Structures are given as structure tokens and as C-alpha cells.
Q: What sequence folds into this?
């Protein structure tokens, strides 16, 4: 493993471990097919029902209505923290790597925490607004299916739009941060907040769809999360109206699968490298144009 | 047949056969249409392309039919910079161009063993642009010399093109490791493993010096309005200049020279050997004269003998400093069993730590910019402790002294031709010209304008350059001048920088790399 790969792993592995735990708890508490508007006694978990301000579902889940407000608050916090961690943590990996590497040793943990807090704060504020939009859409349409259809249309338009690309491009930037004192704290907070803002700008429409899903809510969350995680793998491009699909992720996955036998052979020392004898062309591939 | 690449200055004349045939081959390729895969401009587009810049320099006309979308997607804008693929991609690229030129040479009844010369600007009296490139005429006095490029302005912007030997160095040849880190320590001789990242913003050792520097100073910027940036100074136009290929032949030669050093090994990771196609990017490829596509991987570029060529001389003009010299200077006594250098292809672990940084963005404008790098006392002490000589009673007792690096982070700007020198530890009244021992290095921000574009692959964050300042820190330590709260840094541009260039350095920092 290269030194750079070692450094990537230092952040990536703990974050992915936390993400895995968050998803495991989420799936245990709220199975994949739970819905946010399936009505009383539909077997949905309290956390996500609370997230969607679904009073009927709260009661249907066995919580006394008179205690709904207390459980509301606790459930909201728990559910929210779970959802935020499960969906957003992997998106933080590049930002955390940057601040950790570029901070004094004595400040690394502090910088990481400040970036994470700022990120979570922006996403929390943004998500409250998305929840309000989701609730309003349901109220206006009166039909969950129609609301999610509208959400899908909005997501599709946003996905094609140059503004989406604008947000994706800026989400990748790593700005310089101060090293000492209050300026370092301020820069870490600003970096985390800015990173989250561009992330939110890029992903809001997909999140809205997840919040509107009438059934299979957690499953939709999972699909949306994976999409959000792999989308930044593609290169920044000029913002234009175009179809955006995380093609690079598919290419990486395909290349990884195809190269597995050769990688195993190289590691085992069976192959040094495919260069052959002779001049240019010998041992290297050619194909017609 | 093994092709031998020779020093362009030692071929026996300004228009020696190798140079004359090169010119004929270039002329033949230049005569082809843009959309023809074996045309000069198509090959240049494989390195980089900008419609505006190509039009500005006269290489693109409205009547030009562009290559097909399939050709663009397959071949164009491939160049690898800020990545450990930098060297192997360019090796294959130069090989392919050489094959195309050779095919033209043979078609014109020239020698079948023609090989591309290289320009070793480090050799004594060879820093000037080879004469065949410097004038508009062929040797018989006829104009339209294909090796001449009008937009080649040189370090002073006056068309006198040479490489200032006091501003280039071969320090990278002393780096023991091919690949390093992007976190502030050594990026390695060949550059950083970029993983799944779509771009690298840290240039490797050999890429920074002399590669970027020669690009920036040979291309330069016209001293006269409209201050056009030279072709070589911009990655999107560099390969249009025929001198590009001799420069990159020399960079390629320096890679082979580094490999000849003790335990200087290329990476063995599958992701390097198999190239970026193994991480979801395009495969490296180039059009060949017979209509086929040459597809290659870094693993296939490792052995010159297998590739069928060699250099007439791999001796670097400047010998790299031996690690033992440093240990002697610091007063270390190294046991015999540790005296022999043990190299590994890629180091298992690298501990990199920030020691200090300045507090604000440094605008590079005018003749000089200054800032102070504030040092963290505990981190500075760790460096100092590592520099204290020790005598080992056993093998495990000796720890190598820290290496120290100056980072110029998030260098942004609109002009790729604004080269500058960086000095560390100069007193306020000291003249940098009188203190070459305080020169940390020279930077030509090749590609900075593209990297400063928020909608380009670097997302507007600019470029980060890493200069090894181990020697300067050693000097300061031995002089008692390292136990300070801050160190002064002075940026001295080669030519005064205008505000329009908008050149700035986001942060200047010092990192230690050691135990």
C-alpha cells in the first residue's frame, strides 16, 4: 500500500465503520419496506415516522398519544442523528482528510470535530427545510403518490441542470485553513459549513424524494445515499444542461472486477508486468481505430 | 533494433541529421488536418486543448473540422499531471510521437533508426535553445522552419530562449521514493498516488523541477502587449511546440537515470502498473502511423530495453547529494550495519506533520512578496530533536533526521508564465541574490490558470507545490537560527508580476516528515 493510500485509509476506515453501524441500527429499527405514510399499525418504526411528522404513525407504532410530544423529541433526535450519519458521513471523508492533514498535530481532532459539527448543522437546517417542503407537498396534493411524483420530477430537472453541476464542482474544492487559535477554529467551521452547503445544493432534490417516499422509505434512503456517495467521483465539468449519471463509479466497479485475477497474480509474484521483448508494440496492446 | 536517443547539443552541428529529419517529420505531421489522428495538432490536443488559446496562437481556424466525438473521448486531453502516472503516461506519449515521426522519416527515405534527440539543459553550455529551433529558416535559408515557434518568449519575454541554470535543479533525483503523499511531506520523485481522485493538485518532485520550470521559462510571456503567454508555458498548448518533445525526452531520460540509482524502484501496486483504467479512468492510448491504436499501461513503460530504446548517456549533470553527507554534517555516527542504504519500492509508512504556517493568503505581485511562517513550538522541537546527533548502541537506536518541506498551497492565478523563486530564512535587509543557500526552490505554476477555474478538474483550488527545505533547516539548526517563533519567506518573481495575473498563494506551510 502506498503512503498516500495509508493516509486515505486513516480517515476512510473509521468513517465507513461508523456509517455501517448507523445503517445497521437504522435497518434494525426500520426495515427496508417501512413507509412514512402507511397509516396506523403499519409496522413502521417510530424514528422515521417522527422524522416525517406523522402523528398517526407514531400512535400506530404503539406510542401513547399523550406522550407523543416527549417521544417526538427523543425520537426526532435519535432518528435524525442516525439518518444524518448513515447518509452523510462518507461525503465528509475528503474534507476530514484535508483538515486533518493540514492542521497541527495538537489540533487535528479539534479540526475534525469542528468540520463535522458545521457539516451536521448545515445539513440539519437544510433538512428541516426539506421536511417542511415534503410536508407541504403532501398537504397540497393530498396524495402521497402524487407528492412523490412531483418530487421525482423536481429531482430529475435538478439532476439535469447546470446548477447541480455548479454545486458538485464547488463541493470538491479544498481551501487553505489557518493553523492557530481562533482563526483555525473559524476556518474549520467555515470549511465544514461551506462543504455541506455545496453538498446540500447538489443533493437536496434526491433527499426530497427520500423523504416523500410513501413506502420502502429506508430502501429509497439507501439508494439515494449510494448515489450521493458515488456522484463526486466524476470529474468537475462545465455546468450545462445534460444527463448526469455516476458513470465513473460503474467503470471503477467494472475495472475492479475485471482486474481481480491479474491483481491476485501480481501480488502472488506470478506477473511482474506485461512488458514484452522487442521494440514498441511488442507486449503492448494494439487495436484498430 | 534498439533506438538510441542522443543529446541534441552533441550531434555534431546545429542541423545535424537527427534534427533535420525531425524537422521534416514535424513538417509532414503539421501538413495534416486537425481531425487526422496522426497530425501534429491532433497529437498536441492529446496533451491539452483550449479553443481560445489555440486560436490566439494561430493553431485553430473556424474552417478546421474537429476530430469526431469518439476520437476526442478516446485520445484528447489525456495528460497526467499531479499524479504518479505523470512519468509513464508521458513516456508512452513521446514513444508514440517518435514512432509517427520515424514513419515519416522512413517514408522520405531517411534512416530507419532515427530517434528523437533530447535537450539536456543542465549540461555545461547547453542551456540555450538548440539553434535549429531558434530561427524561422531551414538550413538552406528558406523560411517556414517547422521547429520555430513565434510564441516562444523565454525567461525575459524577449524571444531569447534559454533555461537559467541557476533556477533549475535536479534535487528530485535524490528522492529515494517514487511516490509520496499529498499531505505536506514529500510527494515522491514521480508523484502521488491519486487513488480514485479525478485530479491531483500536488506535483511530484521531477514534475515540479525541472519539468514545470522549463515549460514556464521556455514558453514565457511576451514582454510586449498583448503579453501573450508562450505555447510551452500552458499545458493546453505546450505540445504544439516542437521543443516540447525534446524537453520530455530529457524528463524521460531523468526517470531512467533515477532508476539507475541505488534502490530507486518504480511502484509495484496494481493500480500503478495497470494504470488509471483500473480506477475507472480512460486507458492511455495514442494513434499509430499504421492506423492502429497504441494502448499502454505504466507497467508496460518500466523497462527501456523492452520498449526498444535507450539513451546515449544517463549520467545526470548534477550528482544527487548522498544521505551520508547529511548525516556527517549533522554529526550523526551511523553504525556500519545501517550505512548501506536499503531501498524499498514504496515506503511502508510515512509520518507527516504540520510544523507551522503563515496566517493569510500571499498575493504575488510586483517584484517581491514577503510573509512569516509561524512555527508551533512542540512541532518545531520535534524537528530539532531529530536533528540532534546520536550514537546508536544498537540498530534500533538510530532514527533518521527529519526531512522538512515547504508547501505553497492553493497557488491560484490567471497566468501560467509567472515563475518565481522562494527563499526561506532571509533577514529583512538581506539580498536574496547574495544568499543562494537560502533558496528553497523555484516554481513555475504550469497549469495554474486551468487549476484556478472552479469548473475545471481541480475545482478552482489551484495547485500545491512542495519544496524540500531539509538543507536550509539543517543550516539554520546548526547556526542556532531554528529556535524561533517564525521564519521569513520571500517570494521573488523572475519578472515583475502584474495585478492582472491575480497570482496568489493560499497558504505557505512547513511540514516535517520523519518518525
A:
Amino acid at each position: 500500500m502506498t503512503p498516500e493510500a495509508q493516509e486515505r485509509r486513516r480517515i476512510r476506515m473509521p468513517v465507513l465503520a461508523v456509517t455501517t453501524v448507523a445503517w445497521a441500527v437504522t435497518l434494525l429499527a426500520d426495515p427496508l419496506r417501512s413507509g412514512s405514510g402507511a397509516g396506523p399499525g403499519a409496522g413502521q418504526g417510530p424514528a422515521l415516522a417522527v422524522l416525517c411528522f406523522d402523528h398517526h404513525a407514531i400512535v400506530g407504532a404503539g406510542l401513547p398519544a399523550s406522550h407523543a410530544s416527549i417521544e417526538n423529541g427523543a425520537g426526532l433526535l435519535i432518528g435524525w442523528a442516525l439518518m444524518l450519519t448513515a447518509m452523510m458521513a462518507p461525503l465528509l471523508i475528503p474534507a476530514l482528510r484535508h483538515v486533518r492533514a493540514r492542521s497541527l498535530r495538537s489540533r487535528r481532532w479539534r479540526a475534525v470535530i469542528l468540520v463535522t459539527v458545521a457539516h451536521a448543522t448545515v445539513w440539519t437546517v437544510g433538512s428541516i427545510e426539506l421536511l417542511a417542503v415534503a410536508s407541504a407537498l403532501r398537504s397540497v396534493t393530498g396524495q402521497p403518490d402524487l407528492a412523490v411524483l412531483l418530487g421525482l420530477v423536481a429531482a430529475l430537472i435538478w439532476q439535469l441542470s447546470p446548477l447541480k453541476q455548479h454545486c458538485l464542482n464547488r463541493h470538491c474544492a479544498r481551501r487553505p485553513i489557518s493553523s492557530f487559535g481562533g482563526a483555525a477554529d473559524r476556518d474549520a467551521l467555515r470549511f465544514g459549513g461551506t462543504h455541506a452547503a455545496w453538498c446540500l445544493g447538489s443533493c437536496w432534490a434526491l433527499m426530497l424524494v427520500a423523504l416523500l417516499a410513501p413506502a420502502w422509505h429506508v430502501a429509497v434512503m439507501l439508494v439515494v445515499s449510494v448515489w450521493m456517495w458515488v456522484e463526486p467521483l466524476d470529474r468537475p465539468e462545465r455546468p450545462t444542461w445534460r444527463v448526469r449519471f455516476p458513470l465513473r463509479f460503474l467503470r471503477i466497479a467494472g475495472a475492479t472486477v475485471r482486474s481481480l485475477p491479474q491483481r491476485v497474480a501480481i501480488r502472488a509474484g506470478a506477473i511482474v508486468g506485461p512488458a514484452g521483448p522487442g521494440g514498441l508494440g511488442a507486449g503492448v496492446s494494439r487495436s484498430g481505430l | 533494433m534498439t533506438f538510441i536517443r542522443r543529446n541534441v547539443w552533441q550531434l555534431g552541428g546545429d542541423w545535424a541529421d537527427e534534427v533535420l529529419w525531425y524537422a521534416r517529420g514535424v513538417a509532414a505531421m503539421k501538413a495534416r488536418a486537425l481531425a487526422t489522428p496522426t497530425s501534429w495538432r491532433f497529437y498536441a490536443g492529446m496533451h491539452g486543448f483550449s479553443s481560445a488559446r489555440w486560436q490566439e496562437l494561430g493553431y485553430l481556424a473556424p474552417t478546421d473540422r474537429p476530430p469526431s466525438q469518439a476520437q476526442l473521448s478516446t485520445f484528447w486531453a489525456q495528460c497526467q499531471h499531479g499524479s504518479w502516472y505523470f512519468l509513464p503516461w508521458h513516456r508512452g506519449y513521446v514513444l508514440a510521437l517518435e514512432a509517427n515521426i520515424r514513419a515519416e522519416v522512413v517514408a522520405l527515405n531517411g534512416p530507419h533508426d532515427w530517434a528523437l534527440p533530447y535537450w539536456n539543459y543542465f549540461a555545461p553550455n547547453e542551456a540555450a535553445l538548440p539553434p535549429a529551433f531558434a530561427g524561422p529558416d531551414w538550413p538552406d535559408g528558406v523560411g517556414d522552419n517547422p521547429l520555430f515557434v513565434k510564441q516562444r518568449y523565454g525567461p525575459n519575454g524577449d524571444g531569447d530562449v534559454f533555461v537559467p541554470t541557476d533556477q533549475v535543479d535536479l534535487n528530485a533525483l535524490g528522492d529515494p521514493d517514487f511516490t509520496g503523499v499529498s499531505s505536506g511531506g514529500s510527494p515522491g520523485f514521480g508523484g502521488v498516488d491519486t487513488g480514485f481522485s479525478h485530479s491531483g493538485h500536488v506535483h511530484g518532485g521531477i514534475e515540479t523541477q525541472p519539468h514545470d520550470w522549463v515549460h514556464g521559462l521556455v514558453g514565457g510571456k511576451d514582454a510586449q502587449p498583448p503579453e501573450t503567454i508562450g505555447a510551452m508555458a500552458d499545458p493546453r498548448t505546450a505540445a504544439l511546440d516542437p521543443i516540447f518533445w525534446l524537453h520530455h525526452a530529457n524528463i524521460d531520460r531523468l526517470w531512467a537515470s533515477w532508476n539507475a540509482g541505488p534502490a530507486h524502484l518504480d511502484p509495484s501496486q496494481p493500480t500503478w502498473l495497470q494504470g488509471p483504467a483500473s480506477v475507472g479512468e480512460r486507458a492511455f492510448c495514442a494513434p499509430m502511423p499504421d492506423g492502429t491504436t497504441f494502448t499502454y499501461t505504466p507497467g508496460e513503460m518500466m523497462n527501456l530495453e523492452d520498449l526498444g530504446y535507450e539513451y546515449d548517456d544517463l549520467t545526470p549533470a548534477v550528482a544527487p547529494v548522498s544521505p551520508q553527507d547529511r548525516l556527517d554534517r549533522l554529526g550523526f555516527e551511523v553504525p556500519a550495519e545501517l550505512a548501506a542504504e536499503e531501498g524499498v519500492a514504496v515506503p511502508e509508512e510515512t509520518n507527516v506533520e504540520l510544523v507551522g504556517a503563515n496566517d493569510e493568503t500571499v498575493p504575488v505581485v510586483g517584484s517581491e512578496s514577503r510573509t512569516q511562517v509561524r512555527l508551533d513550538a512542540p512541532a518545531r522541537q520535534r524537528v530539532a530533536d531529530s536533528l540532534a546527533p546520536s550514537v546508536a548502541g544498537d540498530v534500533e537506536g538510530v532514527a533518521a533526521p527529519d526531512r522538512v518541506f515547504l508547501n505553497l498551497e492553493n497557488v491560484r492565478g490567471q497566468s501560467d508564465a509567472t515563475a518565481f523563486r522562494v527563499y526561506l530564512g532571509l533577514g529583512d535587509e538581506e539580498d536574496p541574490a547574495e544568499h543562494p543557500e537560502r533558496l528553497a526552490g523555484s516554481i513555475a505554476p504550469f497549469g495554474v490558470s486551468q487549476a484556478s477555474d472552479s469548473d475545471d478538474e481541480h475545482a478552482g483550488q489551484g495547485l500545491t507545490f512542495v519544496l524540500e527545505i531539509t538543507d536550509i533547516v539543517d543550516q539554520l539548526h546548526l547556526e542556532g537560527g531554528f529556535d524561533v517563533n517564525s521564519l521569513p519567506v520571500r517570494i521573488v518573481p523572475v519578472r515583475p508580476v502584474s495585478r492582472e495575473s491575480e497570482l496568489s498563494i493560499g497558504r505557505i506551510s512547513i511540514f516535517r516528515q520523519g518518525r
Remarks:
- Confidence is low (pLDDT under 50) at residues 35-68, 272-289 of chain A.
